[in-house]
Design brief:
The protein has 17 helices and 13 strands. The chain starts with a strand and ends with a helix. It has a domain of 204 residues: Rossmann fold, CATH 3.40.50.1100. With 428 residues, the chain is an alpha/beta fold. A hairpin with a 2-residue loop joins strand 3 and strand 4. It is globular. Helix 4 packs antiparallel against helix 5 and helix 13 packs across helix 15.
Length: 428
């Protein structure tokens, strides 16, 4: 049976997936990691006809001792009920579109699956949870949409005021049953710190708090699935993945997929001006040598102190990380330039986050000459970033019905200061 232990527990006292999922953060403030990674036969995902099929086969193996497959399968088919196409740009470059879920972001994969798994275990236990979520853009709307209306679950959402796009903010503050939204007068790092402090604050110990950020292992397992689904569609056995990166949860999902059995030659960690992880990979920064968040066009990746570095560092260590992952930082100017180059070359409109990845993969090719086929993750729909698209291409992105509907719905939001005390006043 797979168990999960805290990254900060030297004795590795394990808990079941159910407990790791519902707690979110370990009591000592660490992140839960698996004590083993099941090595699976590639046929499990090579025979799949949809990403939901991949989920049933792969997560069925992970959770077989926690819940019957007959209970897991309908959860996954409901959660992963949208397409995940692999778009060929050239003979050796592909884009995996992860933005066809209800909030037009890759976060829909993890949030929708996690919400339904939580609901399953909470119903069995007769318990409730308050989900605390810090977001720099897309996580919050995916969690709000995925968890809204779920019995026994309330969502408290924190985002940095004035530091998300207008479309993203509308998604965050649209009124949904069981969801409260707070605009924090600070950065994403302030929001993330407030969430972490709340989990270990004695005065909040009586509240049934949990998380839905990528600090929760329940968010990461579903994110491994689309790496396997992409590989299933490629003619080559071995592949490189370029991952637009912020909190490093997406990269952690890719590492899990590789450990399960998908041959990945290299990961490219594509960062915007928030440069800690590329600096670490290049030996320019010490482990945990974080820096304050820098605001950029690719705001969902504006993370100065990425939480999932702790997982990656615990499981891989510095030497393996630096050998397996190649990283670079991409400026706003280079992002806009890559958006235009991509459109001119392929007629493809990329959001600024996706463009950071496309710029990074081009730099990797130039630096290494590596001919391995490469899949670059497309994280969000360009319609969520009309200002950036217009600035880069001189035209508006295509409209999306899901976004149009938002503006006909009521909103609800409160502004608070960037302190735990401000958050506690509302939680209590």
């Amino acid at each position: 049976m797979i168990r999960y232990y805290s990254t900060r527990d030297p004795h590795k006292n394990p808990v079941r997936f159910e407990e790791a999922l519902l707690k979110g953060l370990a009591p000592d403030g660490g992140l839960y990691v698996p004590d083993q990674i099941p090595r699976l036969e590639p046929a499990l995902w090579q025979q799949a006809r949809s990403i939901a099929d991949v989920g049933v086969a792969v997560l069925g193996a992970w959770l077989k001792d926690e819940m019957p497959l007959a209970d897991l399968e309908p959860i996954l088919r409901e959660a992963l009920n949208f397409p995940c196409p692999l778009v060929k740009l050239s003979d050796d470059l592909y884009v995996l579109e992860l933005f066809h879920g209800p909030t037009l972001s890759f976060k829909d994969f993890g949030a929708r699956t996690m919400a339904r798994l939580m609901q399953y275990f909470l119903r069995k236990r007769g318990e409730r949870r308050i989900i605390l979520v810090a977001t720099s853009g897309d996580t919050g709307s995916a969690v709000a949409d995925g968890f809204a209306g779920q019995d026994n679950i309330e969502v408290v959402l924190l985002y940095p005021k004035g530091k998300v796009s207008a479309v993203q903010e509308r998604q965050l503050i649209t009124r949904r049953p069981g969801v409260r939204s707070f605009a924090v007068e600070g950065s994403f790092d302030d929001c993330q710190r407030m969430v972490k402090e709340a989990f270990v604050d004695p005065e909040l110990a009586h509240l049934p708090l949990s998380s839905a950020n990528s600090i929760n292992i329940g968010r990461l397992l579903p994110q491994a699935l689309y790496y396997l689904w992409a590989a299933r569609q490629l003619p080559a056995e071995r592949v490189n993945f370029c991952v637009p990166s912020g909190n490093l949860g997406n990269l952690m999902g890719g590492v899990l997929a590789a450990w399960m059995g998908q041959p990945v030659h290299k990961f490219i960690a594509a960062h915007n001006a928030n440069h800690f992880f590329p600096d670490f990979l290049q030996g320019k920064a010490e482990a945990y040598g974080f820096h304050p968040t820098i605001a950029t066009l690719s705001n969902a990746m504006d993370v100065g102190s990425p939480s999932n570095f702790e997982r990656l560092y615990t499981l891989l260590g510095a030497e393996k990380l630096r050998a397996w992952v190649w990283g670079t930082t991409v400026s706003n100017e280079a992002t806009l330039s890559r958006m235009k180059q991509t459109y001119d070359a392929y007629g493809y409109i990329a959001c600024p986050h996706t463009a950071v990845g496309l710029e990074a993969q081009a730099r990797y090719r130039e630096a290494t000459g590596d001919p391995t086929p490469l899949v670059s993750l497309a994280c969000a729909h360009p319609a969520k970033f009309p200002d950036a698209v217009s600035q880069a291409l001189g035209q508006e992105p295509p409209t999306e019905e899901a976004l149009q509907i938002l503006y006909s719905r009521p909103t609800q939001v409160e502004t608070i200061g960037p302190t735990l005390a401000a958050l506690k006043a509302h939680l209590l």
